[in-house]
Design goal:
The complex is a heterotrimer of chains A (493), B (118) and C (483). Chain B has 118 residues and is mainly α. Chain B has 5 helices and no strands. Helices cover 75% and strands 0% of the residues of chain B. In chain B, α2 (7-25) runs antiparallel to α3 and α3 (29-51) packs antiparallel against α4 (72-102). Chain C is mainly α. Chain C has helices spanning 3-23, 28-54, 78-105, 110-129, 133-151, 157-189, 206-219, 231-234, 240-267, 269-275, 279-298, 302-323, 326-357, 368-371, 373-387, 393-407, 411-437, 452-470, 473-482; strands at 60-67, 70-75. Classes of the chains: A mainly alpha (493), B mainly alpha (118), C mainly alpha (483). At the A-C interface, α17, α18 and α20 of A face β1, α5 and α6 of C.
Chain lengths: 493, 118, 483
C-alpha cells in the first residue's frame, strides 16, 4: 500500500519533517528527526532504484490526476540514482552535523539548522523525482532558499555576503530556467517532461525552442556552476558551516546537472540539442576552460575549503564534458562522475570540517603540520585528493576511465588529452596540501595530536572508505550509470 | 499590427532587461533586490500574457461560455509570486544582517571591509 | 596451496609487513624482526612457485572485478617470477642493510620507513604477478605513491623539491601517456589480459601501433627513457637503502619489466616486427644509453653517478626488447636480473662509505680501499659486473643482447654496446683505482669499515653476481620460456 506512494513520499517526508522540527524547537529532537528522515529517504531511494532497475520507469500521478494534466512523479534508473546519492550523503552528514553544528552555530538556532537541512533535502529530492517542469522550479527554489540561509549560518560575517551573492545569482538562474520553461510551454502547451518530449519529437528548427533551450542552459548552468557562471560557488562553499559545505558540495550542483541531462537527453533529445545546435561544442569549450582555469585557480587558494570549492568547479567541468559528447557512453561517464565526485567531495569537506573544529579554521597556515596534529584526518584527506586526481583504486579513476573511453570512442582525442592533462593540475593542488601537512611544522600553539571526536571523524572516514571502495569495485556505479544513461535517452520514446 | 500584437512581449523584454540592468549596475544591496523583483515580474507577464484569448472570459464552466482564457498560467504564476516573495524576504533579512555586521550595504564598501579582514 | 593461492599469499605477506611495521611502532627490535620474517616468508613463497612456473604452468587467480569486464587478476609467468624473485630475495638482504644504516646514521621516522618499504615491495610483487594491464597500472601507481614518502624521508627543502620532480615525472607520464594507452588498448583489443603473442595482432595498423607504442614507452616513466629520466637522479636524496633496493631494483626494474611485458604480451614481438614500429625505440634507447653514460662520466657525486649509470643500464633492457628477436628478449630478461644484483651492490657500498667515512663525492675517495677493504671489494665486483666482464653476471646478459643484436644484423646496437662498455669502464674503473691505488692526500684518514650488517649485505650481493655467472641455468631457462 505504502510502497506505491514511494516516489512522492521520498520528497514529502523531509518536507513534512521540517515544520515539525520548528514546532519542537529542540536541537536534539531536530537532529534525531533529521537522522530518521535521512535514513528513511535513503531506504526509499534504494528501493526505488531497485524497482526502476528491475521493472523500468515508475509513474506516479499526484492526487490521482493523470498526466499531463496533473503533476507526475516519474522515477527511472537515472533520477533514482541521483536521489539515492542525495539521501545517502544526507545520512552521512547528519550524524556528523551534531557536533560540528554545536561548535559553529549558536545553541538557540540549531533546531532551525536541521529544519533548513530537511527543506533543502526535500527540495533536492523533489527536483530529482518530479516529472513536471514547473514543479521542478518550485523544488529548485525550496532547496535554494534553504541553502541561502544555511550558508548564512557560517561563523564569519563574510558568510552573510556569500549567501546574499548566491541569492542574487541563484534567483537569476532560477528565473532564467522559468523563462526557458515558459517558452517551451508556449510552444508545446504542456509542462510534463514526457508529454513535452513527445510533442517536441516532430518539431525541428523552431526559434522559440532554441531560445528556451538557451535560457534553461544558462539558468541551470548558473546553478551547477558551469564555468564562467561559477562566481557564487567559492565564497558560498568556503564560508558555510562545515556540514553545509559537505552536503551542498556533494549534492546541490549534482542535482542541477541531472536536470540539465534530463532536459537535453530526455526532453529535447540528442538530435535537437547536439546535431541541430552547436550545444556540444559550446559546452565542451566551457568544460575544458573550467577544468584548466578553475583547477589552476585552486592551486593558489590560501584556504583549504576555497581550494576544494575551485576544485569542484573544475570537476563539474569533467561532468559537463561528458554531457557535451552527446553520446550514451559520454552521458554514462558524466553520471558516474556525478556519483563519484559527489562522494569524494563530500568526504573531503567533512574532513576539512574536522580540521576546522580542532584548528579553528582551514587556512593553509593552520593546516601546516597536520600530519603531526591530526594524522588520520590528514591521511584520509590525501586519499580523497588522490580521487580528485584520478589515481587507480579511487572513485575518481573509474569515472575518468569512463570519460576518456567515451571520448576515444567518439573520436575526440583532444578531449581525452585535455582530461588527462588537466589531471596534472589536480596533482598540483592536492600536493600543495600534502607538502603543507607533511613537511611544514605545526603553527605555534597547535594542539599536540588531537583528532576530531569520533562522531565527526567516523562519518568522514566512512565516506573516504566509500571513495576507495567505489574505486576498487567500480563496476556497480559504472553499470548503474550506464543504465541511467539509457533511461535518460530512452525517455518517453 | 504585429508590433502592437506583440505588445506583451515588448513589455516583458523591457522589464526583464531593466531588472537585470539594475541587479548588475547597482551597488546598493536593497536596490539589487528591487531589480531582482522587476526581473521576476517580467516572467509573470511572459506566462500570463499568452494565456489570454481575445474575447475569452474567465474559465468557468457555465451555459453560453465557449471561449475562455487558459487558467493554468495564472495558477503557475501564483506559485511563482509566492516564491518571489519568499526570495525577497530572505534577501531583505540577509541585508539587515549584513547591515548589522558591516555597518553598510554598499557593495564596494563591503568588499573593502572583507579585504581588510584578510 | 595451489599456485594461484601462493601468488595471492605472496601479495598479502608484504601488506602484512606494512601492518607490522606500523603496529610495532614503539618497539624497534620487534619491528625489524617482523620485517625480516615477512621478507623471508615472501622469498619462501616466491621460491615455492618456481617448480610450477618452470613446468610451464601459469598459476593465476582473479581477485575481483574493478571495471566492467576488467578484473584485478594475478597470473605468474616466467618474467614476472624472475622479477618477483629478484625483488624478494634482495628485500631480505637490504632489510639487514637498512637496519644497520638507519641505526648508524640515526635516521628518524623509521617505522614509516619500514612500512613504506614493505608497501613498495607489495606494489612490486603486484606488478610482477599482474595478470592484465589494468592490474599492472594499478600497482604501478601504488608503487609511485608509496615510494614518495621514502624519497622525501628527510623532510628537508631539498627532499621536497626532489619529491616534486619524482612525483611530477612519474605521475605525469603515467596519467598523460600510459593511461590513454591502456584505455585505447582496452578499446581496440576488447581485453587487457597478457597473452603470449600479444592481444593487438590484427587490430592495429602500423601508424596506430607506432603511436600506441610511443605512449606506452614514454608513459612507463619508471623505465627512465630520455627525456623522462630526471626523476631518478632526483630520487637520490633518499636514504641509501631506498636508492639501493627501490631505485636500483624494485622501481626501475618495474619500469623495464613493464616495457618488456608490454612488448611481449600486449603487442607481441612478431606483430610488432611485422608492423615495423619499434625501430625508433631502439634509437631512443641507444641515445639514452650513451647520453646517460656521458653524464655519469662527469658526475662527481657518487650516488648521482650511480643513478645515471642506472638510466643507461635500463636503456640496455629497453633497447634489447625493442630488437624483438628471441635472443635479444632473453638478454633483456637476464639483464634485468644481472643489473639488479650488480647495482644494489654498488649502492650498498656507496651507503657504507657515507655511513663509515661520511664521504659522498668520488673525488674524496682516494685511498679509501685500505680503510674499507670489504666495501670497496664489493664495489669493485659490482663495477666489473656492470662493465660486463666474466666471471660476473653482467657478462651473461650482455652476451645474449649482443647475440640478439648480431642476429638482427643491427650494427647500430652492436656499436652502441661496444661504446657503452668503454664508457662504463671509464666511469667505474677510476673509482676502484682511486680507492686502492691512490694515496689519501687530503689527510684525516677514512676511519674504519662500516657496521657488520651492512658489510654482510654487500658481500652477499657481490657473491650473488659471481653465482649468477657460474649457475645461470635457472635464469636462462625462465628467460627462454618467455620467447
Amino acid at each position: 500500500m505504502l510502497a506505491q506512494h514511494l516516489p512522492v513520499l521520498v520528497a514529502v517526508v523531509p518536507l513534512v519533517a521540517a515544520p515539525l522540527i520548528v514546532v519542537a524547537r529542540s536541537g536534539f529532537l531536530g537532529w534525531v528527526t533529521a537522522l530518521l528522515v535521512a535514513a528513511a529517504t535513503t531506504a526509499m531511494s534504494a528501493a526505488l532504484l531497485a524497482q526502476a532497475t528491475a521493472s523500468g520507469t515508475i509513474s506516479y500521478a499526484i492526487g490521482s490526476w493523470p498526466p499531463p494534466w496533473g503533476i507526475e512523479y516519474r522515477v527511472d534508473a537515472a533520477n533514482a540514482l541521483v536521489a539515492l546519492l542525495v539521501s545517502a550523503v544526507a545520512l552521512v552528514v547528519v550524524p556528523y552535523a551534531r557536533r560540528s553544528v554545536s561548535a559553529e552555530v549558536g545553541q538557540d538556532r540549531q533546531y532551525l539548522f536541521y529544519a533548513l537541512l530537511m527543506l533543502c533535502l526535500a527540495g533536492l529530492l523533489g527536483m530529482a523525482l518530479t516529472g513536471d517542469a514547473f514543479n521542478l522550479f518550485v523544488f529548485l527554489e525550496i532547496s535554494s532558499l534553504s541553502t541561502y540561509v544555511l550558508i548564512a549560518l557560517g561563523r564569519h560575517r563574510r558568510a552573510l555576503l556569500a549567501a546574499y551573492q548566491y541569492l542574487v545569482l541563484g534567483t537569476t538562474g532560477a528565473t532564467f530556467y522559468v523563462i526557458g520553461v515558459g517558452l517551451l510551454y508556449l510552444a508545446t502547451g504542456t509542462l510534463n517532461f514526457a508529454d513535452m518530449a513527445v510533442r517536441l519529437a516532430d518539431v525541428r528548427d523552431a526559434r522559440p525552442l532554441a531560445a528556451g533551450l538557451a535560457f534553461i542552459t544558462a539558468g541551470i548552468g548558473l546553478k551547477l556552476a558551469l564555468f564562467p557562471l561559477h562566481a557564487w560557488l567559492p565564497n558560498a562553499y568556503a564560508c558555510a558551516p562545515s556540514a553545509v559545505s559537505a552536503f551542498v558540495a556533494a549534492t546541490a550542483t549534482k542535482v542541477s546537472i541531472y536536470v540539465l541531462m534530463r532536459v537535453y537527453f530526455s526532453v529535447f533529445g540528442v538530435d535537437a540539442v547536439f546535431r541541430d545546435l552547436p550545444t556540444g561544442a559550446i559546452l565542451a569549450v566551457l568544460s575544458v576552460a573550467a577544468m584548466f582555469a578553475a583547477s589552476a585557480a585552486a592551486i593558489v587558494q590560501p584556504d583549504l575549503k576555497r581550494l576544494l570549492a575551485f576544485s569542484s568547479v573544475g570537476q563539474v567541468g569533467y561532468i559537463t564534458l561528458g554531457i557535451s559528447l552527446g553520446s550514451a557512453p559520454g552521458l554514462a561517464a558524466a553520471m558516474a562522475h556525478v556519483v563519484n565526485h559527489g562522494i569524494t567531495k563530500g568526504a573531503l569537506f567533512l574532513l576539512a570540517g574536522a580540521m576546522a573544529l580542532r584548528l579553528g579554521g582551514t587556512g593553509m597556515d593552520r593546516v601546516a603540520g597536520l600530519a603531526r596534529t591530526m594524522p588520520v584526518t590528514a591521511f584520509a584527506f590525501v586519499v580523497g585528493g588522490l580521487s580528485l586526481i584520478g589515481v587507480p583504486g579511487t572513485a575518481g579513476f573509474a569515472s575518468k576511465w569512463a570519460l576518456v573511453s567515451a571520448a576515444i570512442e567518439a573520436g575526440r582525442w583532444w578531449i581525452a588529452g585535455a582530461v588527462l592533462l588537466s589531471s596534472l593540475l589536480a596533482v598540483a593542488y592536492v600536493w600543495r596540501f600534502v607538502e603543507c601537512a607533511y613537511f611544514r611544522e605545526p603553527p605555534a600553539g597547535a594542539p599536540d595530536r588531537d583528532e576530531a571526536p569520533a562522531d565527526m571523524t567516523g562519518p568522514a572516514l566512512a565516506l573516504t572508505a566509500a571513495v576507495v571502495a567505489a574505486g576498487l569495485f567500480a563496476s556497480p556505479v559504472l553499470e548503474a550509470s550506464t543504465r541511467a544513461a539509457a533511461a535518460l535517452m530512452g525517455f518517453a520514446r | 499590427m504585429t508590433l502592437l500584437g506583440h505588445f506583451t512581449y515588448w513589455a516583458t523584454v523591457f522589464l526583464m532587461m531593466t531588472g537585470l540592468h539594475v541587479v548588475i549596475s547597482r551597488g546598493n544591496l536593497v536596490k539589487k533586490l528591487v531589480g531582482l523583483g522587476i526581473f521576476q515580474t517580467s516572467v509573470y507577464l511572459l506566462y500570463i500574457g499568452p494565456g489570454k484569448l481575445v474575447g475569452g472570459t474567465a474559465p468557468i464552466v457555465g451555459p453560453g461560455i465557449a471561449t475562455y482564457s487558459n487558467p493554468l498560467p495564472h495558477v503557475l504564476i501564483l506559485t511563482a509570486i509566492v516564491v518571489g516573495v519568499a526570495t525577497l524576504a530572505v534577501g531583505l533579512a540577509l541585508v539587515v544582517r549584513i547591515r548589522e555586521a558591516y555597518g553598510t550595504i554598499e557593495e564596494d564598501e563591503l568588499l573593502a571591509a572583507d579585504a581588510e579582514d584578510d | 596451496m595451489t599456485g594461484g593461492e601462493l601468488a595471492l599469499a605472496a601479495l598479502a605477506v608484504p601488506l602484512a609487513g606494512v601492518a607490522f611495521a606500523a603496529a610495532l611502532h614503539r618497539n624497534p627490535d620487534w619491528r625489524e624482526a617482523a620485517t625480516f620474517a615477512t621478507a623471508g616468508m615472501l622469498f619462501f613463497l616466491v621460491v615455492s612457485l618456481a617448480p610450477a612456473v618452470l613446468a610451464g604452468e601459469r598459476p593465476s587467480v582473479v581477485l575481483f572485478e574493478m571495471l566492467p569486464g576488467l578484473p584485478v587478476a594475478l597470473a605468474v609467468e616466467p618474467l614476472g617470477w624472475l622479477f618477483a624473485a629478484v625483488a624478494s630475495s634482495l628485500w631480505v638482504v637490504s632489510t639487514a642493510y637498512s637496519v644497520g644504516y638507519l641505526r648508524a646514521n640515526g635516521e628518524g621516522r623509521q617505522s614509516r620507513f619500514f612500512a613504506c618499504f614493505a608497501g613498495a615491495i607489495f606494489a612490486a610483487v603486484g606488478i610482477a604477478f599482474a595478470g592484465n594491464l589494468l592490474t599492472l597500472f594499478l600497482f604501478y601507481e601504488i608503487l609511485t605513491l608509496v615510494t614518495y614518502p621514502l624519497v622525501t624521508h628527510h623532510g628537508t627543502d631539498e627532499a621536497r623539491r626532489a619529491g616534486r620532480v619524482y612525483l611530477g615525472v612519474l605521475v605525469g607520464t603515467s596519467i598523460v601517456f600510459l593511461l590513454p594507452a591502456v584505455i585505447a588498448t582496452a578499446a581496440l583489443a576488447g581485453t587487457l589480459d597478457f597473452r603470449p603473442g600479444g592481444i593487438l595482432g590484427g587490430r592495429v595498423d602500423a601508424t596506430a601501433a607506432g603511436v600506441l607504442l610511443a605512449l606506452f614507452m614514454f608513459g612507463i616513466g619508471k623505465a627512465a627513457l630520455m627525456p623522462f629520466h630526471r626523476w631518478l637522479p632526483a630520487a637520490m636524496v633518499a636514504p641509501t637503502p631506498v636508492s639501493a633496493l627501490l631505485h636500483a631494483v624494485a622501481v626501475v626494474k618495474a619500469g623495464v619489466f613493464c616495457v618488456v611485458k608490454v612488448i611481449v604480451y600486449v603487442f607481441g614481438t612478431e606483430t610488432l616486427a611485422a608492423l615495423g614500429g619499434a625501430a625508433w625505440l631502439t634509437a631512443v634507447a641507444a641515445f639514452t644509453l650513451v647520453a646517460a653514460s656521458a653524464v655519469a662520466l662527469r658526475a662527481d657525486n657518487l650516488k648521482r653517478r650511480l643513478a645515471y649509470s642506472t638510466v643507461s643500464q635500463l636503456a640496455y633492457v629497453t633497447m634489447a626488447a625493442s630488437l624483438l628477436t628471441p635472443a635479444a628478449v632473453m638478454g633483456a630478461a637476464l639483464h634485468l636480473v644481472a643489473h639488479a644484483f650488480g647495482k644494489i651492490t654498488l649502492f650498498f657500498a656507496a651507503g657504507s662509505i657515507y655511513t663509515a667515512a661520511h664521504k659522498t663525492e668520488v673525488s674524496q675517495l682516494d685511498g679509501i680501499g685500505r680503510a674499507m677493504p670489504w666495501t670497496m671489494g664489493a664495489f669493485a665486483v659490482g663495477a666489473l659486473s656492470m662493465i660486463g666482464l666474466p666471471p660476473l653476471a653482467g657478462f651473461v646478459s650482455k652476451w645474449y643482447i649482443l647475440t640478439g643484436a648480431m642476429g638482427a644484423r643491427d650494427w647500430l646496437v652492436v656499436g652502441t654496446l661496444a661504446a657503452s662498455t668503454l664508457l662504463n669502464a671509464a666511469y667505474f674503473l677510476p673509482i676502484v683505482y682511486r680507492a686502492f691505488f691512490v694515496a689519501d692526500t687530503a689527510g684525516g684518514g677514512h676511519g674504519h669499515e662500516a657496521p657488520a650488517p651492512m658489510v654482510v649485505a654487500q658481500a652477499v650481493t657481490a657473491a650473488a653476481c659471481v653465482a649468477l655467472f657460474l649457475f645461470p641455468g635457472l635464469a636462462i631457462a625462465l628467460a627462454k620460456a618467455l620467447t
